[in-house]
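Appendix B. One record, verbatim.
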Amino acid sequence: MGLVSRLILLAISAPGLADDSFSVKSSCCDAITLDSGGMGDFYQGERLGQFVRSGSSSSGRSIYQQSSGSNFLYYLSSQAIWMVGPNVGQDFGGVLNREAGTCPENLSRDWEYYSDFMDSWEEDWTMEATCGNNGPTPDPDAEACTWGQYCDGCAIWSEANGVRYCCANNCDSGSLDVSTSNGEVVCTCHH
């Protein structure tokens, strides 16, 4: 047996060398509550609340969609931070954690909020991400969506309330489910 064949066989059969995205998905919470008793609530209250897992990123970390808003909680690999913002994968949001942990509920560093008044990121030691299970059961195969100009040029998209929605990752393949409930748009992507 050649060296390449042995290495391939070793990679296939050795525990711990396989893709660990399943273990990340199964070890993190399905729903996260991001809450603050401090100034983070004052400056970025619209970015807090209940988040439900809606997919995973290329890093294998979960992506969470806000239940009563238009934000996502996601890991931004390029900056090695967890971010809460309107568009998955973009360095634009109002809440972040500078720890590169696997699950947001296990991060030990203080969360930070962006203060418009101070024009800077400020720590909020009262802000925390905890497991919450009051939200709907997430679709385990669903991925995050994005909307607006980020969908320009995408082959697969859908429109709701005059806004174009598409998959946040690989918007040229897969399928998209967009619905509205009580004026709130719910979007999921499947590949």
